[in-house]
Amino acid sequence: MLKEKVLAKINDQFQFEIESAYLYYAMSAYFESINLKGFANWMTIQAQEELTHSHRLFTYIINRGARPSFGAAAAPKQDWKSPLDAMKDAYKHECKVSEMINECVGVAMKEGDHMTTTMLQWFVNEQVEEEAAADDVAQKLKLIGDNSGALFMLDSELSKRTLAPETGAA
Ligand code: FEO
């Protein structure tokens, strides 16, 4: 059985991963609106990944004999000044997720819940990739500046992103 404090943190994370998907769908729609379909694809895949993260936490709560609770999902930001502005926000968002995962680990450790700390290890590793992936695109955009040819080349590269297979037990 999950302790109350651990359940509350994991449940918050379950919901925040859904809000993350919501944000990335909003970013995808923004990129569609400026005709950068590769960036839009990258964001749609990112949104889908977030839903798998949320599902992983939902399943964990159920498997530990608890019941997830559901709050209102916050409306995401929906417009950005530029592709770089959006990608910087994506990177900042991932840094926030990392902090939240660290807090979850902290609470689970304090409560002596080794099953939860072990489950969260997957998220700790995932966040290294999540931050790096968003930062990589943001850094490329900084280098590109106002070179539209290079921007379309990057857009073409991002159009190739596909949903990575899930690793580990969900
Ligand atoms: Fe599920 Fe992008 O963190």
Task: Kindly summarize this structure in a few lines.
With 170 residues, the chain is an all-alpha fold. The chain is built from five helices and no strands. The site of MU-OXO-diiron has 7 residues, from helix 1, helix 2 and helix 3.
What does this structure look like?
The chain has five helices and no strands. The mean pLDDT is 96. It has helices spanning 4-33, 37-63, 83-110, 114-144, 148-158. It has a single domain, classed as Ferritin. It is 75% helix and 0% strand. α1 runs antiparallel to α3 (83-110) and α3 runs antiparallel to α4 (114-144). By secondary structure, it is an all-alpha fold. The chain binds MU-OXO-diiron (FEO).
Q: How would the blueprint of this fold be written?
A:
Blueprint: H1 4-33, H2 37-63, H3 83-110, H4 114-144, H5 148-158
Helix pairs in contact: 1-2, 1-3, 2-5, 3-4
The main β sheet shows up as: none
CATH class: Mainly Alpha
Known CATH architecture: Up-down Bundle
Give helix and strand order, one letter per element, not per position: HHHHH
Tell me the name of the CATH homologous superfamily.
Answer: Ferritin, core subunit, four-helix bundle
- Name the ligand types: MU-OXO-diiron
Percent in helix: over 70%
If you average the pLDDT, what whole number results? 96
Overall number of structural domains: 1
Structural class determined from secondary elements:
mainly alpha
> N-to-C terminal Cα separation, in Å?
18 Å
Note poorly predicted spans: none
Oligomer: single chain
